[in-house]
Amino acid sequence: MILEPYLLVAASLFCIGLYGILTSRNVVRVLMSLELMLNGVNLNFVTFSSFLDPYELKGQVFAIFVMAIAAAEAAIGLAIVLAIYRNRDSVDLEEFNILKW
Amino acid sequence: MTISETTQTLVTNVLEVGILTGALGVILLPSIVYAAFLLGGVLGGVACLYILLNADFLGAAQLLIYVGAINILILFAIMLINPQTDSSREGASRLTSVSAAGVSGLLAVGFLQVILQTPWATPSIRIEANPLPILGGHLFGDFLLPFELISVLLLVALIGAIVLARRETQFGTLGQDTDMIARPKGESK
What we know:
- The structure holds two protein chains of two kinds.
- By secondary structure, chain A is mainly alpha-helical.
- Chain A is built from three helices and no strands.
């Protein structure tokens, strides 16, 4: 029962999600990568609360809060994606530049 | 969980390999529908890791919220959006992908150093208490204000999502292309 494997998989999930956010041009895939990053953070929280704070478990409370924020973010994000697709007929991030300059 | 050490290590390793391959598939597969299904698998694997970590409630919440709600929502969004527009996904320029890989790799190397070099003071005996009463005490005790704020935020997000995704129902804009696809043939208004 050591905690390094959990931390390693959490860090890998975070880095994979970051790479996905930086490279993908589809908005839905960006949202999926964001979920990966949030899951990495959550896994870190739960690992630390389970190994280093087994009486208080405050990390799990924060994980619950992160989950609620993630649910709200996914709903709002996908609604925005649908609205953009209805206006511009595209979900390509390179074409959304109306607020750029 | 009262399972033996070797079994737990074995299950953990298998789950971790599955999660990492699934996550790579999520960001690398050209078909976004497959990526969404793989994302469901990754989220389920993380839920199993939570259960192994003696966080049963979080595992169940992960299954309900992520796999049951967010992943299904993403699948619905993919199906509402024309999938042919995904063909330009490889168009991320070489400079972009190389620099993104550099940033992620640097971050990963930093994490690796920190994780492997820190002497973690793990207790030798783990307390296998039921986490649910402790969580409930936190949520209705010292974390009561964030808990209520989260509920207000979820309400605001719900209303905001409805307002954003609502179609304008003027007569001229109702019969657009996506509307025709969404409505079955024989159904009358």
